[in-house]
Design a protein that fits this description.
Elements: E1 4-11, E2 20-26, E3 31-35, H1 42-50, E4 57-62, E5 65-66, E6 77-80, H2 92-102, H3 107-120, H4 136-148, E7 154-158, H5 166-183, E8 186-191, H6 194-200, E9 203-208, E10 211-216, H7 218-223, H8 228-233, E11 238-247, E12 251-255, E13 261-265, E14 277-282, E15 287-290, E16 297-306, E17 310-317, E18 321-328, E19 339-344, E20 350-352
Helix pairs in contact: 2-3, 2-4, 3-4, 4-5
């Protein structure tokens, strides 16, 4: 299993665009996702790994090999594009076999490998179908099969599910992850879909405007976001301005809008002193309705949405701030216009930087 290292890689397109930079190692065999909004630089970094774009500075290494100036066809990668890039005049089997044909693989071995990978992606029996006879999900699986049949060291996927409907995306992401894992290939995946990244990835790099905000596991990124951007971008979060009242060795007491005080875990990488201002991330599920005597926050319900198993509330707090709350659905919950008291799980509150 081959690791991929981006050694202080930067790409500068011009004075009007922020530089795109990354310095990290993708471990051999892991499924690593570059996640961020459109224009953040994630696809540029994928194309730098593939060799389609040359970095302004830095190095790209596969294992110990420096491939920064190596042509794309000599990097031992398989790539799945957003539009699949299939050959409409070739059959399913011919599309999948294309890379093997270019590599002059012996006919019997080629047939064996094509049959195996089509079975892996659930398309055995489709060998002679034309591409225009397939659904979008089936075409995506052909593209995946074509990328992995050559047994690449690194599998690159550039938003391959963006053209599928929600149900197909959920089904196909499971298949992609299974095929990558069973093949023992290092996977690098690009998406703007947070749920997709959280469900599929071993680790995620969250990007914005060319900058990497955080690299970590999905669980760590969700529960311990590094910045306000990560907290807002990954799922939903209430990011509230707070003032530090007291900083101790293991925790920090902050004052929330409206005067409520809350002790939260101290971040080792964040030096704070009394009087400083920062931000607090509170996930909607960490807030709860309570009695006026117990509640540290007060406000008015301005909106609610029934989501099946849960109900989401929007509450306008004192101090012109709004928070979102998610609770298990219950018929006796508050209604729009009700005045409510809130409290939160201190253990799940998390300080973030701007």
């Amino acid at each position: 299993m081959i690791p991929v290292q981006l050694d202080n890689v930067t790409k500068v397109y011009g004075e009007d665009s922020p530089p795109i930079s990354m310095d990290l190692t993708i471990e051999g065999g892991e499924f690593f996702t570059l996640l961020g909004p459109s224009g953040c630089g994630k696809s540029t970094m994928l194309r730098i790994i593939a060799g389609f774009v040359q970095p302004t500075s830095g190095r790209v290494l596969f294992g110990e090999k420096d491939l920064t100036r190596t042509a794309p066809n000599r990097r031992d990668t398989g790539m799945v594009f957003q539009n699949y890039a299939l050959f409409p005049h070739l059959s399913v089997a011919q599309n999948v076999a294309y890379g093997l044909t270019v590599r002059k693989v012996e006919k019997k071995e080629k047939a064996r490998r094509v049959a195996r990978v089509l079975a892996d992606v659930g398309l055995d029996g489709y060998e002679d179908r034309r591409i225009d006879e397939l659904s979008g999900g089936q075409q995506q699986r052909v593209a995946l099969a074509r990328a992995v049949v050559i047994s690449p060291s690194v599998l690159l996927l550039d938003e391959p599910l963006s053209n599928l409907d929600a149900k197909l995306r959920e089904e196909t992401r499971v298949q992609i992850r299974r095929v990558q894992s069973e093949a023992g290939i290092t996977g690098v995946y690009v998406t703007h879909d947070q749920a997709e990244a959280m469900a599929m990835s071993d680790r995620i790099a969250v990007m914005e405007a060319g900058r990497v905000h955080q690299v970590d596991t999905p669980r760590e990124i969700y529960h311990r976001p590094a910045t306000a951007f990560v907290a807002r971008f990954i799922g939903r979060s209430n990011v509230l301005p707070v003032e530090v009242a007291e900083a101790r060795e293991k925790d920090v007491t902050v004052v929330l809008p409206g005067g409520a005080r809350l002790a939260v875990s101290r971040r080792d990488d964040l030096e704070l002193a009394a009087g400083e201002r920062t931000f607090l991330s509170l996930r909607p599920e960490t807030l709860r309705f309570t009695t006026p005597d117990e509640g540290r926050l007060r406000g008015t319900v301005t909106n609610l949405e029934f989501n099946g198993a849960t109900t989401s509330y929007e509450v306008a707090l004192e101090g012109e701030l709004t928070v979102q709350i998610t609770t298990p659905d219950q018929t006796s919950g508050p209604r729009t216009g009700d005045t409510v008291s809130l409290d939160c799980e201190s253990a799940r509150a998390w300080l973030v930087t701007a």
